[in-house]
Amino acid sequence: MAGTKTGDFIELITPFLRGKMRALELAHGMNSAEWRAIALQYVKNPLEAAISPQERRRHYESEVGLQFQGKPLVGVERLYRRTVLLEPTTVCAAHCRWCLRGQYPVKTLREEEIVNAARYFGEAAECAEVDEVLITGGDPLMAPKLLRIGFQALKEHAPNIRTIRIGSRVPFQDPDRINDALLSVLGSLPDHRIEIGVNVNHPIEFWPESIAAIRRLKAAGATLYNQHPLLKGVNDDLATLAALYALLREHGIEAHYLFHAIPMQGMRHHRTSVKKGAELLMRLSASGEFSGRAKPHYALMTDIGKIVLYEGTILARRASDNALLLRSGYRLEDRKRWNPSWRVPASVDVDEDGFMCVWYQDGEDEAWSELGLWGNLRLASNDLGPPASSIAG
Ligand code: SF4
Question: How far is the CA of 231 from the centre of ligand 1 (A)?
């Protein structure tokens, strides 16, 4: 599960991914760029223990910490006007080492908690403008029964919700889970728009089994999109990103956000500078390498929500802790209206027009070879399982 009971975000890799890693090792060698594209995402690294004073266990706080109809709301978050978040479970097929929620407490909701959340979305005055729910976690596609409960509760109690988004890496971590039982849940609300954010980071993850799973999801009526982090040594180069976005386009997956990797505890080795990401996006946008309809927005996940980087977004740099002050379009009064329990983070300044500006921890661009310890990257278990039958390039 994404999250921890003990402070240790354990290594969890599906047999499917282990088979792919074994095949990549045999085909290209351990520590090859191809093997590393997966290993850096999933293999627990000793560098995670190197925690800088600026890094935190949680990146941003957006829980709706209220009671509704006498019961506490759990698994509900909100930062934006039209969208609410519901997290039925923190369980995942595999643990992505860079996960935003790796240090969150582990939790799976009970049926009555999911129903209470749906009633809140449909009935609370502060949800009057909400028309979209993002079901995330954890990975909601790991829990089809909870997903069905959530779908039915939304249908019954929240008619204002017209779009249901689901964040999932299952198609690329354990694609056989995209089976008839799961597809029947996804097809159970034909009058709603169903969107699935798949989070693929590297072109090599387009395994044949994953492509087949994507086709099944699309045949069930889901719209697919991709949002993913920029990860040092995985996809922080133009050729890899251009190949990834060409494949997304080929397989009908919309490009959404390319995130700068967030400043979570023990994440320094995954993070580039913000500037490097901006330069890559500029080159992607002007490369002519792939369809102009397949380009992402470059976004920073800050303490107050996503901020897409445009010219003029960065207002200042603080050298003492390598932080950037970012201009946002979020007004404090709106945020308090949407989520009355929300507390203003210490990183926020409010400008004279009521817009929030927020300090964001930048990353660094030293190469993997300069970080050292690369040779110590090993699976917690040496058993990589049988070679996979095939790999996609
Ligand atoms: S599947 Fe999603 S929630 Fe789970 S560990 Fe990976 S990024 Fe985090």
Answer: 15
